[in-house]
Amino acid sequence: MTLQIETIPCLSDNYAYLAHDPDSGETAVVDVPEAAPILDALAKKGWTATHVLITHHHADHVQGLSELLAQHNAQVVGHAADAKRLPPLDLALNDGDTLQIGRETGHVIDVSGHTIGHIAFHFPQSKVAFTADSLMALGCGRVFEGTMPQMWDSLCKLGALPPDTTICSGHEYTAANARFALTIDPDNPELISRAEAVDAAREKGHPTVPTRLSEELATNPFLRAADPGIQAHLGMTGAAPAQVFAEIRRRKDNF
Ligand code: ZN
Ligand code: FE
To answer: Is the pTM here over 0.70, yes or no?
Structure first.
């Protein structure tokens, strides 16, 4: 059986996730922006958190951890290379390492750029990846600590996962991301219809995540830096995709 995923809105625009393995009963919490909605979701499902997977050190991804651990005796998992900035880790992993949620194997992928030491967790059997502030729905995290080429490299790693992978990202930024994406890729019919669907979902208060990698590859400008139409639109025909990515990211920073 595959992991059951629950999406939990936290704070004003963050998301935490639950990944539950029905065979073993094990449940991973991915990021802890605040404890209360996560505790509620666990209680409603009757699940006990056995793991907490931390994607990166920012407060809006870790600050509810001690309150969660007060009620759930879960193993805290994060990036060994960034351990000094993370809460105490029970399992410190590096790029390429794996962990088990029941019989499901999760793979750690270093996706540095937003921060140095940001990781994603990919569960290939369940075809789901937790990408937090690296690859986001129609966007990507701002490049705070890493370099533009490093962020591009990280997005390429995620973009190379199987296209039917479910992408669980860390924030509800999709409507603003869609407005920006349309300035980069205005004639993309899939983007135009996705932007409409995103607005409709937000009008009803529905989350726009998780999303699917195939949808991101078709519409997310940050994954499409090699697209000839986008390159032409930016006056960068034939430029290296990493450079085109950097230009798109700079424009978004000033959007
Ligand atoms: Zn962040
Ligand atoms: Fe964040």
So the answer is: yes
